[in-house]
Design goal:
mainly alpha; about 0% strand; homotrimer
């Protein structure tokens, strides 16, 4: 097994990581409120949203058990998020534009961390960038599947593309032997700026033209 | 790889385990009948319901290939359940209250077995209890996803909480070095009694209050 | 880890494999067009359809990271298929009968390759045949889940049975020490002929009789 730089990361990174999980978990729990889930459903849906992308990446690259199962903080944060959403969902719903910004931070962090971890486990550049994207968008896809709705990431919103771009920057920078912190910041910044511009300017991905065959 | 006490378990445990899988598979196949699935769909949906929770646990804790793929009995039982449901579904549908009781036995067994296996693979107490719950509820969630309906476990029914409680009892008992058989019986009993009381008294989990934001 | 004959397969096999992935990815992307997905959604849905079955098999048998993550060609083919569907979906939709034939070739190849790989990783005959079927039908199931529709494989169409039969032939032939190429061709032929007959003669799997209980 390779050395895992995420087993003993800096306090800053852990705080950012937990914050990303918390924000993702809030978004998942709010979907659950709208679907009429009970308090337990909110916690599970929030936890799946916050941890699902990392779990999927870890299972695919062979890093099992996933890091989140080896650190109780990663399990308590989604529980806290689910309970917060259970109690404060009306206020949180009104804060949704703000939450979208936090969500963009989470996405930026996850895509870079996912790509670097995949590189660390021996994957090539292209699959590593893909795993970065999977880390960023996997939780949201799992959330939508469990909530019985088509994953929003596929429907015109620019969400996965910034994650793939940020992961690609991190991979290319690492391969070019640039300093690790620079690589991480550059990758996250590309994803963050792109995603926030997409939210604020309402950018849409191209849709297929012409009538769909039946 | 750790020694796996479930590779050569006692005959009693194997019979109970196969019975749990059979009951879960019947519940899955009955959902398939209502959704208009063909005989093959019933077998696959039943098999996924019976084996899905254990597969998910095994993939997450790194116990691959899952035990069910190393023992043909674990594969034939869901096939048998699917065929039984194919032929006898009208009678089985009328027996549903009885099936709910068997299902509670299956849940009790699965949550304890899942938690103990996770401990055996080196997971900490909190993740091990979580894996026990995943073993118990994972098959039903997979069933509902494949059947195109929102997982019932999230909607007010007390189903996952008893599984988590039973798994937690098994984990705490094991950590306290109590005898293995006592631990297993105590964990399963907690889950079973709680679940049956929830069914008979129609206990509901708390729902979020107030209107959901849109 | 066992030696993996699919790491350095013959050029013919690679071409057939990539062709199968391409055809499956096209079928996935066409579903995405009908669901109103953007160009990125088409690529992801196509990629999941083309690679999902192999990923599921590899995760279950412990062959991680999956072979497709170690070879950039396996990642670029679904991207190409998604873009082709994005541009040419009206023409492709009219070609659907032809695509069904290509799809049957893909299914035949995948079920045999999946079963042989599972044998190579030490699984017994029954689980190996099952893994062959999973390789063949897993991508289509993932496609339907992500597209928010009930998996078509469960609804009367004879699709999984030919895959299981082809995988079983490959497993039995390998156990009987027949030459590898003969085994592969025989298994694929059984699956292909059965599937094409099912398409052309509109064979249906048996449905449960009588009213479903509510």
């Amino acid at each position: 097994m390779p050395t895992d730089p995420f087993r003993e990361p800096s306090t800053t990174l852990v705080v950012l990581d937990l914050l990303g999980i918390f924000v993702f978990a809030i978004s998942g729990a709010l979907v659950g409120v709208r679907k009429g889930y009970d308090v337990f459903g909110l916690v599970v849906l929030g936890g799946t949203t916050g941890l699902g992308g990392g779990f999927l990446r870890d299972v695919l690259i062979g890093a099992v058990p996933p890091a989140a199962l080896a650190d109780w903080r990663y399990l308590l944060v989604p529980v806290a998020a689910g309970l917060v959403a259970f109690v404060f969902h009306p206020a949180l719903g009104r804060m949704e534009p703000t939450i979208n910004i936090f969500d963009a931070f989470g996405l930026s962090l996850f895509c870079v961390a996912g790509a670097l971890k995949a590189l660390d486990y021996g994957l090539g550049p292209l699959p590593a960038a893909l795993m970065g994207m999977v880390t960023g968008i996997g939780g949201g896809i799992a959330r939508d599947l469990l909530a019985g709705r088509v994953p929003v990431v596929f429907r015109g919103e620019l969400y996965a593309t910034p994650a793939l771009a940020g992961a690609a920057v991190a991979v290319v920078g690492t391969r070019a032997d640039l300093p690790g912190s620079l690589v991480a910041v550059a990758g996250a910044a590309v994803c963050l700026v792109w995603r926030l511009l997409a939210v604020w300017r309402d950018w849409q991905a191209p849709m297929p033209r012409g009538p769909a065959s039946v």
